[in-house]
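re: the backbone from monday

yeah here it is again, tokenized this time
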């Protein structure tokens, strides 16, 4: 069964690379025919990519409490939702401070998740090479988050999302960019030294995505087509339905088994976003992307805590 699991992980890795590559090419193409000030296409791509990524965090209750009694499960879900609601309130109330926390939290969560994904591949490989997982995690988490938000192109994106975030870095944009680049260079050198060519290619792709694609597109494509897909692959290792599919020799059914249960969360996220906008008496056309991002970030707070055990097991 390990061979089938490995096959799925490698296919998901190829998919995430292809998605990022297409986003890079599309960004070049759109830049030639669409005015840089027109962010409409970026918003459409961002919402589509976010929609792809949202379901991956909806199975946390099944991963954490797979065989719990209904009452205990209900308590867990209630606490999970309560934390997310508090996070939504905090981010909407303290936009800039909340955003800074989200940036730091996302960088940590994304990096650890990607390193855990690669560690699971190593577990199923015949002769894995030494993997500098923590250095890789720092670079892989920082690249898709920090660089798009401190680039020259970030102003238009932040203006569209929420103008209050324009100076979120308090003038430290060049410092953040420098440290991210130095960290990435150190990780690449270490990976090449350890002959981890596949991981070096991943970092190069993430770097190219961060510097070429508009910030909205870069973050959303990474979130939906890279992070979420790789996390979903990891979920197949702990979900009974997916494990049964692996035993039957079907990696595709195993992957779909980790997707279908999360689809209601996609609808729920958009419904909640619209209800928040209506409650605040804002314009849906102006606020939908911002509020949707807030809800996704808020859900990341309990999601990050819940997946910590899964990450720790993979990296041990």
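seq for it, each position gets an aa:
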């Amino acid at each position: 069964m390990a061979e089938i699991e490995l096959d799925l992980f490698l296919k998901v890795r190829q998919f995430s690379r292809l998605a990022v590559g297409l986003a890079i090419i599309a960004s070049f193409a759109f830049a030639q025919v669409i005015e840089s000030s027109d962010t409409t296409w970026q918003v459409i791509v961002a919402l589509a990519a976010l929609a792809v990524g949202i379901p991956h965090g909806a199975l946390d209750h099944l991963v954490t409490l797979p065989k719990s009694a209904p009452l205990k499960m209900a308590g867990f879900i209630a606490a999970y939702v309560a934390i997310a609601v508090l996070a939504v309130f905090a981010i909407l109330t303290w936009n800039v401070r909340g955003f800074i926390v989200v940036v730091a939290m996302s960088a940590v969560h994304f990096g650890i998740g990607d390193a855990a994904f690669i560690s699971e591949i190593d577990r199923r490989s015949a002769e894995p090479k030494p993997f500098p997982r923590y250095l890789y995690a720092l670079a892989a988490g920082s690249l898709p988050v920090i660089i798009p938000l401190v680039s020259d192109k970030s102003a238009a994106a932040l203006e569209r999302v929420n103008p209050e975030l324009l100076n979120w870095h308090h003038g430290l944009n060049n410092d953040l960019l420098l440290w991210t680049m130095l960290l990435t260079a150190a990780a690449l050198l270490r990976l090449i030294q350890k002959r981890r060519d596949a991981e070096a290619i991943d970092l190069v792709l993430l770097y190219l995505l961060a510097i070429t694609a508009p910030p909205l597109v870069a973050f959303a494509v990474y979130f939906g087509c890279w992070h979420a897909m790789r996390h979903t692959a990891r979920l197949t290792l702990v979900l009974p339905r997916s494990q049964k599919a692996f035993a039957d020799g079907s990696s595709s059914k195993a992957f779909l088994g980790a997707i279908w249960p999360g689809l209601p969360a996609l609808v729920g996220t958009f419904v909640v976003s619209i209800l928040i906008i209506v409650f605040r008496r804002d314009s849906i056309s102006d606020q939908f992307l911002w509020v949707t991002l807030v809800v996704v970030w808020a859900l990341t707070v309990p999601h990050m805590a819940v997946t910590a055990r899964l990450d720790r097991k993979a990296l041990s």
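The chain has a mean pLDDT of 87. The chain has one domain: 2-315.
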